[in-house]
Amino acid sequence: MKISTVQSVFYNALGVLSLWATASSAQQEDQFRIALKLTPEAHQQQHADPNFITTLFQRTQPQGFGAAPQVTTGPLIGAQRSANISARFALAGKRDAAPNFDVWYQIQLGSESGEQARRDTEAQNNTTETALPQHIVELIRGLIELPEVESVHPLLATPPPTIGGLGPRAIDASDDPRSPDQGYLNPAPQGIDARYGWGFPGGDGTGVGIVDMEQGWKIDHQDFIAAGITFISGFNKGRWGFAHGTSVMGEMLMQDNQMGGVGIVPGAKGRVISLWRDEWWPNVPDAILDAVAHMSAGDILLLEAQEYDPTGVIGYVPVEVFDATFEAIQVATSLGIIVVEAGANGSRDLDAYTTLLGKQIFNRASPDYRESGAILVGAGSSGVPHYRMWFSNYGSRIDVFAWGENVDTTDTDYSYGTESWYTCCFSGTSSASPIVVGAAAILQGISLATRGAKMGPLEIRDMLKINGTPSADPAYDRISVMPNLKAIIDTVFNNNTGGNPDIYIRDHVGDTGDATSGVVSSSPDIIIRQQPIANPDAALGSGSGTETNPSLSQPVVSGQNHSLYVRLQNRGTRAASSANVTVYWSEPATLVTPNLWTEIGTATLPAIPATSNGLIVSPRLAWLADKVPASGHYCFVALAGSDNDPVPAVPNTFPDFVKFVRENNNAAWRNFNAIPAATDGWQKFPVTVPGAFDSAREFVLKAVGHLPQGSKVRLQVPKEFAGKMGIKGCNKGDKVVVGLKPGETLQVGVGLLDAGSLAKCELQVQVNGTEGDAEYALVQEWVGEGGTIEVGRVTWRFGPVVEL
Ligand SMILES: *[C@@H]1O[C@H](CO)[C@@H](O)[C@H](O)[C@H]1NC(C)=O
Ligand SMILES: *[C@@H]1O[C@H](CO)[C@@H](O)[C@H](O)[C@H]1NC(C)=O
Ligand SMILES: *[C@@H]1O[C@H](CO)[C@@H](O)[C@H](O)[C@H]1NC(C)=O
Ligand SMILES: *[C@@H]1O[C@H](CO)[C@@H](O)[C@H](O)[C@H]1NC(C)=O
Ligand SMILES: *[C@@H]1O[C@H](CO)[C@@H](O)[C@H](O)[C@H]1NC(C)=O
Ligand SMILES: *[C@@H]1O[C@H](CO)[C@@H](O)[C@H](O)[C@H]1NC(C)=O
Ligand SMILES: *[C@@H]1O[C@H](CO)[C@@H](O)[C@H](O)[C@H]1NC(C)=O
Ligand SMILES: CC(=O)N[C@H]1CO[C@H](CO)[C@@H](O)[C@@H]1O
Ligand SMILES: [Ca+2]
């Protein structure tokens, strides 16, 4: 598929635009693609004028692309794929948290024929280049300096992160069974002790989905043809041979069949997806997002690729170095997909790595550190003790290591002909990463078989390090530990003699108890009703059909008794013998700081078994009429605790409080107001926008609209607050009224709010129509050190309330 075909689906007017249009194109030019992220304003400009991006290139005057290079523009990610991802986020309760991929473009420099690309492909078949060509580095530097450009990176395939092993190193498959040569399966300290994991239900990976993203495979190799590996999308490309993907899949999926070896998880379901989106063009973020569209929470995505360093330095870096790839990985992990990423063959200290903008994105101790949620894998030697392999990247970002040499697995040739080869010696962070996927899949399989639940990405990432095998010289190697499945299984799945409960209340429907990366304060588990429910377990618990329904609460009516219920789950490995949950109310506020909380009461729950396939419902918590204030709308906070998973202490600095809100799964917020639909006149809702409680801090106020066309929304704020936040509107006495958009997300204001300040605002709404999914939210974001993060929101949902 050529890029112009892609774009014509989504844009009408974008054609091939000729730049520097003097020379003829007879001269062969260097042809390549880049990904470009525009600022929102520049994105609008590009929409209005399809030549806009071309003018950016004119301003940077790139050298080395021939006399008359052409610039062709299209979207980086297909619109259908973006829509699918948005829908996934919506289903998971993450309505507006999906990154916006519309502002990412894919730009091709050069002619469209593909002819040159084909030549490059053949020439670079055997490339040993590990740095970007200088003219590409210059182009990137030129573009990133433009104010309209937020991010830019090349779309180029690199050799997969292996060392050697790509040529024919095949060994006759009629040899003795090879399993004894698979030392990586053996007990620690030599291997990960997959053989121990096989002794447990689910320990062969049954029920676990694995997707390998790379370039080429022989998916009908004799030793895994019975595994029925399928192809998701892209082009099966033999540029560096089909051997690499074949060796990767074998480590995980060689079958137990009296030939060759046995993979770590022969019972898992394997699929592959190519980063070549067509025969000539690679696009890693697009491949990741397409994989995500076809995957479920708890599946494992393996990223077997690496990137050139965009700063031009020699030595490959992990694929998440590029912003679009990073955002795509975040999408995956926030939807509960476990992402395992090769740490890359660059021999580099990732802690010291700095981007073109001077950020240390891989250094966990730096304020620039950014968390994709992926598990990064380094490479160690096969012998004991395990030294860091000379080519492996290292540093605090590396979560675990595994064998980077001598990995016995399946192999094939260059011609896609051989389905019976094996190799003794697959290597690189390439060979290490599938071992870690295998370890994760064993744990996921056991969890599924014994507890009926899959685990989330951060839970598994932490688990893989439990009592792991250290490298030879940890202070020097800095590649963390190699997973030891016996130690992990004995610690976490040990039939209630160890481990701990880990009870949690969901922050939103898609929350599995990991630190939230999306919406806070939309808990479906804090439920308020006007009448007591006769059988709360039947109405709200597992099997009730209401498990993922966020609309179970009814409006609060002052002067009436109400009933509150809280639903808890336990994702730990031991039952919680008892638990309790305390609920507070607050006036509606975008940020519900503890000084606004008023206690309603505490409910004590029965034991919560260590299987997170069960929602346990608290007994009724009565909120009596005389305690219900008259303001009409409320937010609720619930804090839960049990033996060995206590009620968390409420922190007293604001940064710690934000961490607590986002990361502590024993605390949840429900700032949801169900509003009976009324179509005549303005409905008015009070809402407080507080400052932090400890010092003056900077906040963004955002509005997120999902109201039908023809609805009207405005916000009335105190004049002083409008001044601080830069909000412009009509003055009405000591208030300012600003019109908002009913169906869009927009920034209302940004500014410094005083400690302890409480701006009393009012949202005014006219909804057009009474049916469907009408919703409006005000979101408060803190401009903290690592960027802007959501700290709270109030959502008004208009429409009928679920009958129970
Ligand atoms: C996303 O796409 C996949 C694959 O085409 C499809 O099975 C799935 O239903 C889609 N999901 C949503 C939420 O649209
Ligand atoms: C790569 O190089 C090998 C060895 O020269 C050759 O046999 C093979 O055809 C080449 N592959 C491609 C895709 O050009
Ligand atoms: C690849 O390059 C290396 C080093 O330049 C050379 O020794 C080797 O023969 C080449 N292999 C092929 C298949 O061209
Ligand atoms: C837990 O008990 C079951 C049943 O007795 C047993 O099959 C399983 O191996 C035990 N698990 C562990 C980790 O010991
Ligand atoms: C609320 O409940 C209390 C205690 O159960 C009861 O005495 C009171 O009459 C109830 N009030 C209303 C308005 O239903
Ligand atoms: C709630 O449970 C925690 C931990 O089990 C306990 O320390 C606390 O006293 C309990 N609170 C109430 C009010 O029962
Ligand atoms: C209100 O919604 C209806 C459809 O429900 C639509 O036909 C009408 O145009 C909308 N009103 C306005 C003012 O947009
Ligand atoms: C196969 C391959 O690309 N090997 C490279 C791994 O990284 C080291 C250090 O950057 C290079 O020297 C190798 O050529
Ligand atoms: Ca076999």
UniProtKB/TrEMBL annotation:
<dbReference type="GO" id="GO:0004252">
    <property type="term" value="F:serine-type endopeptidase activity"/>
</dbReference>
<dbReference type="InterPro" id="IPR036852">
    <property type="entry name" value="Peptidase_S8/S53_dom_sf"/>
</dbReference>
<feature type="compositionally biased region" description="Polar residues">
    <location>
        <begin position="545"/>
        <end position="558"/>
    </location>
</feature>
<dbReference type="GO" id="GO:0006508">
    <property type="term" value="P:proteolysis"/>
</dbReference>
<dbReference type="Pfam" id="PF00082">
    <property type="entry name" value="Peptidase_S8"/>
</dbReference>
<keyword id="KW-0720">Serine protease</keyword>
<protein>
    <submittedName>
        <fullName>Subtilisin-like protein</fullName>
    </submittedName>
</protein>
<dbReference type="InterPro" id="IPR050131">
    <property type="entry name" value="Peptidase_S8_subtilisin-like"/>
</dbReference>
<keyword id="KW-0378">Hydrolase</keyword>
<feature type="signal peptide">
    <location>
        <begin position="1"/>
        <end position="26"/>
    </location>
</feature>
<feature type="domain" description="Peptidase S8/S53">
    <location>
        <begin position="243"/>
        <end position="465"/>
    </location>
</feature>
<dbReference type="InterPro" id="IPR023828">
    <property type="entry name" value="Peptidase_S8_Ser-AS"/>
</dbReference>
<comment type="similarity">
    <text>Belongs to the peptidase S8 family.</text>
</comment>
<dbReference type="InterPro" id="IPR015500">
    <property type="entry name" value="Peptidase_S8_subtilisin-rel"/>
</dbReference>
<feature type="region of interest" description="Disordered">
    <location>
        <begin position="537"/>
        <end position="558"/>
    </location>
</feature>
<keyword id="KW-0645">Protease</keyword>
<keyword id="KW-0732">Signal</keyword>
<dbReference type="InterPro" id="IPR034073">
    <property type="entry name" value="Subtilisin_DY-like_dom"/>
</dbReference>
<dbReference type="InterPro" id="IPR000209">
    <property type="entry name" value="Peptidase_S8/S53_dom"/>
</dbReference>
